[in-house]
Amino acid sequence: MRTLLLAVACVTGACSADPADAPSFRVAAASDLSRAFDELGKAFTAKTGTRAVVDFNSSGTLAKQIEQGAPYGLFLAANKDFADQAATSGKCAAASERLYARGHLVAWTRSGAAPVTFGELADPKWKRIAIANPDHAPYGKAAKQALVKAGIFDSLGERIVIADSVQAAMTWAREGSADIALVSMSLASVDTAGKAMIVDEALYEPLEQTLIVCGTGADAAGGAQLAAFVLSPTGREILARYGFSVATPPAPAVAKP
What we know:
The chain has about 260 residues and is of the alpha/beta class. Helix content is about 35%, strand content about 20%. Helix 1 (about 35-50) packs antiparallel against helix 9 and helix 2 (about 60-65) runs parallel beside helix 3. The protein starts with a strand and ends in a 16-residue tail after the last helix.
């Protein structure tokens, strides 16, 4: 699990001269957001003067931690199912659930060219194919769905290696522990050391990334503030730069005279 402390960027009237005096709250975020949040977090703290400590992990693992009482103010899940699970636990507010982006699956390799077609993963040259754990990582679930639908999952056998999270799968491919990894576009798009092939979205269920505000008091207030920023034009613009598809929020209703 990667934890990121978002440093406070002070602007006039936005925060205390001492970062330790600034309000803070914890955020649970899906691993595919780890690179995007480097920018998103800085923009948020510059605007609000609020510190946030972000824990990155698979969505299923984070949902379980929330159920067990982890004090998060916001949960940014990689699919709707785990946000729903957090709501069912009573630790997060179901009414606050919002779709904030749609994720995309890619096949990424640092060794030579990426495959031209998804079926090429059956080629024995791809000796180790890394995916996140399908049981608790939405991108791992999507990867398994794609392999099954393409008709090659059973033939791969032990060539499939299971990582705890999509971030870990990406690390394995980057460091050479795996020949190729099925990961999020948001992680692959910022790594210029390799090549990626976009996986046909018809091969897996949509990755409808959903946020939900959690906790009470200051935690929930901070979570609601960050949720609003993520859904704002600035937040959506940042997410789009990392390969997420972001929906345009509906225009406010205009009262008729």
